[in-house]
Amino acid sequence: PPLVSLQRVTKVFANGVTALAGLDLDIRAGEFISLLGPSGCGKSTALRIVAGLAKPTQGRVTWPTASSLDHRDDIGFVFQEPTLMPWANVADNVWLPLRLRGLSKRDAQGRIAKCLALVGLEAFADAYPRELSGGMKMRVSIARALSVKPKLLLMDEPFAALDEITRFRLNDDLLRLQRELGCTIVFVTHSVFESAYLSSRIAIMTPRPGCIAAEIKADATGE
Ligand code: ADP
Ligand code: ADP
Fold it and tell me: A Pfam family matched by this chain, by name (predicted)?
């Protein structure tokens, strides 16, 4: 059975926009799956629904093999912007999810160091976000997401804001990380290259009525 299964998931926002119309998606344990599609086709919404950050209007999300009721404990989320706390140093940023789970700094110390080492930032534990490059901030975000030892790592266009070289490096680092950790990764991107380079499987999402990309396509083809 899949790790997570989305069945006929529809999401209509309060403003009437339909972000997803009957999405069927299985996420298999251990895979690196990309959600690939144009802006506005509902990739982020699908990811947020998997994370439990948004509720489907219709349809079901199930975790067939999970024993715990709160699957959010097993999820790490990496957003497009690094969303680090500017007033806290790197170590404290990585500590945050552990702190929210009641772990003291002292008890979290080993885990924080390990996660920073995984992303090659062990020397920057005391640095502040403003002192880091964009790529380094993204690495801190990844370390923070990994701190809870997630079974499932959800990444929403994580490298979109980075320059191409940094992006290449992070792609390779991410592949290495997944091999080392064995976690399942769902990676949202609109880059055909990135999805082909990274993933073991690609779910292509097409524009639906009510989303911007569909309108652009309609204009371009005159349909
Ligand atoms: P097509 O219009 O190409 O025939 P389908 O409607 O058959 O596409 O979609 C194929 C699968 O992809 C369906 O299971 C559908 O749930 C899913 N899908 C693709 N893109 C989206 C999207 N933007 N929103 C919801 N589901 C999607
Ligand atoms: P993608 O990640 O593929 O760019 P999104 O999931 O962000 O797509 O958005 C899908 C559609 O839903 C878009 O038309 C977007 O404008 C709309 N949308 C996303 N979030 C909201 C929201 N909170 N309220 C209203 N509309 C939204």
Answer: ABC_tran
Structure tokens at 36: 């690939």
Number of residues written out for the chain: 223
- In this prediction, residue 209 has a pLDDT band, given cuts at 50, 70 and 90, of low
Listed residue (181, 221, 219, 173) closest to 198, CA to CA? 173
What type of residue is 171?
Answer: N
45 alpha carbon – ligand 2 mean position (Å): 6
| Ligand 1 closest atom vs CA 208 | 23
Distance CA 177, CA 154 (A): 14
Ligand number with the minimum distance to the CA of 216: 2
d(CA 110, CA 86): 23
CA distance 145 to 127: 18
- What is the pTM for the complete model shown? 0.84
SS (H, E, C) 168-214: HHHHHHHHHHHHHHCCEEEEEECCHHHHHHHCCEEEECCCCCCCHHH
pLDDT in tens, 122-179: 999 999 999 999 999 999 999 999 999 999 999 999 999 899 999 999 999 999 999 9
> Which residue, among 143, 145, 198, has the nearest Cα to 167 in the 3D structure?
198
